[in-house]
């Protein structure tokens, strides 16, 4: 069924547009085909709407593996090529611990506590003042 | 001599020992009350010691009745296990080594054996007397085992409880300001503790919606590569959640150690003291602190 109607499939992740920002909410498991579809959708939507930011809300994700980590990094890299900034919002403690234990610290990724904070982050102009929290002296 | 009960073991040495223990319970308990183990544990009254002795003798008789005096897991011991454990623990608290406690328990054997031998008539077959004595000796050896085992288990259970309490006590998360939480770390960080620290800190980041988390290591005596690795992990996990982690309280000596070890804390925001870290976080939140009144014009 998902092959016939890729946009209406069970695991389809909607890409919502809020002004200049795209909002994607991930929930539960993310399968290979869904992830690929999502990456494609985001790329196309950025190109079509000229969005300047992408917020990925993963507060509903309880379990994580290296695959999700890679997908997040790829979405961010892809969005950067299309001149949009990506913020991952609402990661749960268990997920964060697992990613760190897996060695996936996602250095190029911006993060925020909640979607609200992510929107505020993207509302600020120019390059983010704390890119990955790696530049302590840049305040 | 033993009543005629419908038991297959009737007449066997263990059966004889069982009857003897039941018959002479009072005398054995009285003698045991004078031994150093009972005297040291039950200091308040001798009656209490005799009462405890009676319970132990009864348990021994029940175990002897099973025909297997060498079984430390026998059901007969369950009633006195707790009491024996308390006695062992009390002696351990008094500073006795396990070997010394073992010797004290062993001192209960001669009085019982003396009574048993005296109980036999002069014309009793020597072989049967020896078998009975052996059975009683085996039984007392098992008692010794049970005391030691129970005492050791008690000690381990206490250690486990204390370890848990330590973990709870040692990792409080403090909300310093809106959006700023801090964990003052005291004592040595091992992997179990740093795991707890990481989890509690990250949970607090979610519940308080804190954008800044301060790890204060003023109370950590030494920082080695393992501790540094744990700190890095916590910092990275906090960043993934959208919070910034600041490590504060690095004393000059520790800073020197970190440099000597060649540890790379380059991606971590560090500050000398908790106050500096708080100031940095407040500044980043846009909530600077200013003196309300100019110097010399203190409010009355």
From TrEMBL, chain A:
The entry's protein name is: Anti-anti-sigma factor
- Which InterPro entries does this entry report, sorted A to Z? Bact_StressResp_Reg (IPR051932), STAS_dom (IPR002645), STAS_dom_sf (IPR036513)
Question: Where is the STAS domain positioned along the sequence?
Answer: 11-122
From TrEMBL, chain B:
Q: Does the keyword Phosphoprotein apply?
A: yes
Write down the InterPro entries for this protein, in alphabetical order. Answer: Bact_StressResp_Reg, STAS_dom, STAS_dom_sf
* Pfam families membership: STAS (PF01740)
Q: Which residues form the STAS domain?
A: 170-281
The yes or no answer to whether the keyword Phosphoprotein is present is yes
- Please give the Gene3D superfamilies that the UniProt record associates with this protein: STAS domain (3.30.750.24)
Q: Which domain of life is it from?
A: Bacteria
Q: Which UniProt keywords apply?
A: Phosphoprotein
**Protein name, per record:** STAS domain-containing protein
State the organism of origin.
Streptomyces echinoruber
């Amino acid at each position: 069924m998902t092959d016939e109607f890729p946009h209406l499939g069970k695991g389809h992740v909607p890409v919502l547009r809020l002004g200049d920002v795209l909002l994607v909410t991930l929930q539960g498991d993310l399968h290979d085909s869904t992830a690929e579809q999502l990456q494609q959708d985001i790329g196309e939507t950025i190109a079509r709407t000229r969005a300047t930011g992408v917020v990925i809300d993963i507060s509903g994700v309880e379990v994580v593996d290296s695959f999700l980590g890679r997908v997040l990094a790829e979405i961010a890299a892809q969005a950067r090529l299309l001149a949009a900034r990506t913020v991952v919002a609402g990661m749960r403690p268990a997920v964060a611990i697992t990613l760190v234990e897996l060695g996936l610290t996602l250095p190029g990724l911006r993060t925020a506590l909640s979607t609200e904070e992510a929107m505020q982050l993207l509302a600020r102009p120019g390059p983010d003042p704390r890119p990955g929290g790696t530049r302590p002296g840049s305040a | 001599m033993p009543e005629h009960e419908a038991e297959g073991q009737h007449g066997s040495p263990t059966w004889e020992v069982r009857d003897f223990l039941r018959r002479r319970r009072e005398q054995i308990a009285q003698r045991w009350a004078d031994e150093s183990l009972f005297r040291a544990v039950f200091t308040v009254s001798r009656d209490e010691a005799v009462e405890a002795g009676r319970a132990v003798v009864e348990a021994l008789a029940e175990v002897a009745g099973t025909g297997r005096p060498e079984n430390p897991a026998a059901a007969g011991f369950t009633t006195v296990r707790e009491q024996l454990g308390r006695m062992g623990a009390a002696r351990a608290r008094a500073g006795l080594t396990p070997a010394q406690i073992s010797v004290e328990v062993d001192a209960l054997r001669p009085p019982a054996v003396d009574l048993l031998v005296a109980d036999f008539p002069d014309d009793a077959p020597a072989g049967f007397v020896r078998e009975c004595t052996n059975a009683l000796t085996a039984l007392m050896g098992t008692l010794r085992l049970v005391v030691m085992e129970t005492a050791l288990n008690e000690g381990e259970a206490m250690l486990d409880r204390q370890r848990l309490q330590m973990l709870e006590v040692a990792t409080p998360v403090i909300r310093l300001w809106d959006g700023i939480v801090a964990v003052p770390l005291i004592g040595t960080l091992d992997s179990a503790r740093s795991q707890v620290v990481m989890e509690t800190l990250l949970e607090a980041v979610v519940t308080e919606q804190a954008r800044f988390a301060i790890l204060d290591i003023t109370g950590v005596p030494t920082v080695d590569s393992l501790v540094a690795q744990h700190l890095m992990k916590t910092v990275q996990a906090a960043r993934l959640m959208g919070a910034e982690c600041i490590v504060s309280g690095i004393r000059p000596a520790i800073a020197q150690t970190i440099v000597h070890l060649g540890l790379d804390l380059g991606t971590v925001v560090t500050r000398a003291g908790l106050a500096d870290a708080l100031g940095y976080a407040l500044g980043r939140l846009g909530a600077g602190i200013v003196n309300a009144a100019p110097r010399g014009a203190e409010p009355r």
